[in-house]
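Q: Structure for this?
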Amino acid sequence: MMSREFTQYYEQGTSLWQDAWIRLRKNRLAVIGGMLLIIITLLCLLAPVVSPYGYEQQDLVLGAAKPSLHHWLGTDVFGRDLFTRILYGGRISLMVGMIATLVALIIGVTWGAIAGYAGGRIDALMMRFVDIVYALPFMIFVVLLMVVFGRNLLLLFIVIGGVEWLTMARIVRSQVQGLKQLEFIEAAVSLGLSNWNIIRRHLIPNAIGPVIVYTTLTIPSVMLLEAFISFLGLGIQPPQSSWGSLIADGVDTMEEFPWLLIFPGLMLSLSLFALNFLGDGLRDALDVRTSKD
Amino acid sequence: MWRFIGSRLLQAIPVLFVVITLTFFLVRFAPGGPFSSEKSVVPEVKRALEAQYHLDQPLIVQYGSYLNDIAHGNFGPSFKYPGRSVNELIAAGLPATAELGFYALFVSVIVGMAAGIIAALNQNTWRDHVPMAAAMLGICMPAFLLGPLMVLVFGLWLEWLPVSGWGEVPGDKILPSLTLGAAYAAYVARLTRSGMLEVLSQDYIRTARAKGLPEYVVVMKHALRGGVIPVVSFLGPAFAGLLSGSFVVETIFQVPGLGRFFVQAAFNRDYTLILGSTVFFAVLIVVFNLLSDVLAAWLNPRLRNGLSNP
Amino acid sequence: MISVRALLVISLMTLTACSGGINRVDQGIRDQILHFGNGTEPQGIDPHTTTGIPEHHIEQALFEGLVGKDPNTLEPVPGVAESWEVSADGRIYRFHLRHDARWSNGDAITAEDFRWSWWRGLQPALGNEYAYMLYPIKNAEAYATGKLTDFSQVGVRVIDPYTLEVELTAITPYFMQLLDHESMFPVPRATIEKYGTPTDRFSLWTRPGNMVSNGPFRLSEWKLYKYVRLEKNPYYWDAAKVKLNGIVFYPTENTITEERMYRSKQLHITSSIPLDKVPVYQANRPHELHIEPYLGSYYYMINVKRPGLNDARVRRALAMAIDRDSLIKNVLGGVNFPAYSMTPPGTGGYQPPILFKFDPKGARQLLAEAGYPDGKGLPKIEILYNTNESHRKIAVALQQMWKTNLNIDVTMLNQEWKVYLDSRDSLDYSVARAAWIGDYVDPDTFLNMWVTGGGNNDTGWSNAQYDDLVQHQIPAMHTQKERMAGFYKAETILMEEMPIIPIYIYSTKYLVHPSVKGIPNNILDHYVFKHVYLEPET
């Protein structure tokens, strides 16, 4: 039999998300950010329609050319159209950014919340595991994975997610540790809610602020980490591109062909700003304490 | 409190043991040994090299003697640099790395926290958006971009600062410190802002304000304490990372630090140096995560109960 | 709080005590100190335990062999030996050492020093990767591989303190060149034995203060990952002619940083130059750009065990479908030379056969003859290369050329260096980028490696006729003319079978400040530091 109080909590939980959605829609910056992200994603997905060039199509004689009518954002040293390469690169970077961050988010939040809530030996064991994973030599690990499993994108997501969740877990744990002493959690315990429900319904939503912020911070670092892992041979292979690898290449020729750095950098920044506004909006919308007002 | 610290230090022993063991076997299974090179080494020479470094013994024997060495504080000889011990290499790189790490931490904490606090107090105004936009820019600009860019502007165009070097001429420490500090500053700023916003809406802050306490007392004394906890959680591993050196910043600015040795060690399959660097980093992680947890508990009285049962 | 404020003040003081930076280049010209970008931190400076080019540079300044090389002609010039004779059959060399040759601590150098040094270099337990440079000496190989334990049977004899006799297994026209290689340098016995056993790789004898050497310079300071500083050696027999007072070698791993150090006058010479910077210097400061042909080949290895690639016609089609001129002009900054043979033309007076050219039509035809018309049915090809900017650029360009000219889809795979070496070694690839830098100026160093089972023949290719030529017939030949004809024949077999696709001949490319005089002008990029000096610009 479901207790009346429980149902109340349940309903309050739903209305919380509905409230949040309404408030998010009122936040102008967040809406702009969200729309911008959708536009960028669509452009990347529709790259073959938007651009007349292939991402690997070379024109060695043309070489690196400044932006022009034919090549809106210029070309790289192989005469490949930069606009096209940015769009195709966006597919990889957005996918890595989203999926790897999601992996990190799910593992990190769950791990941190359980450790923080359980406390004691379980907490110690879980957090020492985090210390161990921090300390393992990342590069050797990547090389080994590549040799054992071969090269594939799924592995790339797992590897990146696998290192990015650690700090997330630490942040969530310290938040949860503080929260669990609060009255409303004690109330939930006395109401007989299961531990899992307490973590899911009360602890995580209340720790959401730092989680969202750290997530928006994780996405760019994940996108840049992808460039390094590809450099080690695990990620994408040329002639494919990603924003991270385009930027890394652009840095080398920033004096000779500045557009090769500026445009990919601009695209990355633009997406991240958009994401950030959306994240801030989400954070404000989900702030359970302000919602009590 | 002391019991908590003592118990955490005891827990460090199994952590280090697991890290050493895993790393020891992981590196041996990575393809390519320390003595493979473009011009392939004659088999006899390779055998002799392996014998010199006891690589011809059974793996488990090597593991045992490595544990024994490490228990005596001896990380063994480097494979890549004949005549250098791992202890010596770490000792040689640590001063520059530690100094650079401290400056970067200093930059990131001061700049990042100030920006975060200002932004939080002026939520959704230009005084929020400008520092946060700057922070986002800092995050989008990895060191491999920011470093060369600053060298170009301040070193080559304006000629204000040296383009590279460490402790050779006055001012050559500025650009590497700023480059390394920038990314961390951006993280700190974002985390501070959100932490502060979280705290500022809580009851005890309202109570403090209602009591008529001056705003800076409310902010600096009450709000900041709780607001920086996520930052503190972040800084533990971040500082451990800083102290084990940044390969990118060190190579861009020719800083004689640990990061170059450590990354080269992995590329060279310099087994002992990889292990030495891993143990070194593991100790830093254990120590700084502990410090960060203690600091977080000190900042937030609600966490203190957690200290009694580690 | 006070401590925090103190820290702040101290930090700000250290950080902001700023001035415009130093100009090492001009200071160096005044003091005759050469500032040299050396690529990486040297592994060490013991000539018997190091192999790389940065180490080679430092050792060339620290030590001197029996015979040196002229920086322009590479002909032998007197070193520790002031004269020498060769027996009529070309197998026995007798060297007369100069009486005034000294170690940097003032001790005399005698023939025994060389005998002992070569003994050390050949010790199996030392693990000297360059021991094979001594193999032309009679019984040296047997001793180094442990088949012979009596060193007195190795062809090195001390006749008297100033006379050394060397007996070779066979005529070796390039033997005199080897004497200038670090594996043949004398090393100080007394010092080495003071700091450990002779075969100990872990020794402190090469540290500043301990180290003794016999070249124009000696070690004065070594700061890890900062610099290695050498000073003029006052005991060097030819010290009067040495103009530099010192050389500082910097570990400059990042070529972009290095170029910027050069531009801000911190270096006289760089180890390299980023590809994209070449056109900039060509246009603005061409006289500072040092580009010379270099004794090295860049090529693609083919795994001849793979289906499809096991057909020589397919391999030749791949070679003929590469537009080397376009690649070099548009991708490599125009500083290399197209290669149509393994051995660079002109190596020791040798001209290799040219058996193919860029010919897309002929390539397609060959591919069709092999049973893959228009590229159809050809098993998948993947280019393996180690992570590196220019390897990647070349692979990207070739991939497109093969697509356009042969209509075959080629994928790319980059691997981290050691993984790549492992894949290559275990034939776990279809096409792989590779390169070879000659050890000495003779076609032998480029052709000897392709014999069946050769340590560097990672293609699976084997040809009995080729093996016989390179391993037996040519070593028995007496005149250079005969030998060159033999190499021509061998290389013809190699290029018809084509287990490797030559792409370009290396060139050295780096930046040299106009004040630096006496830099090398030879295909080995061989520095003779005693002739280098700095002259103020006029």
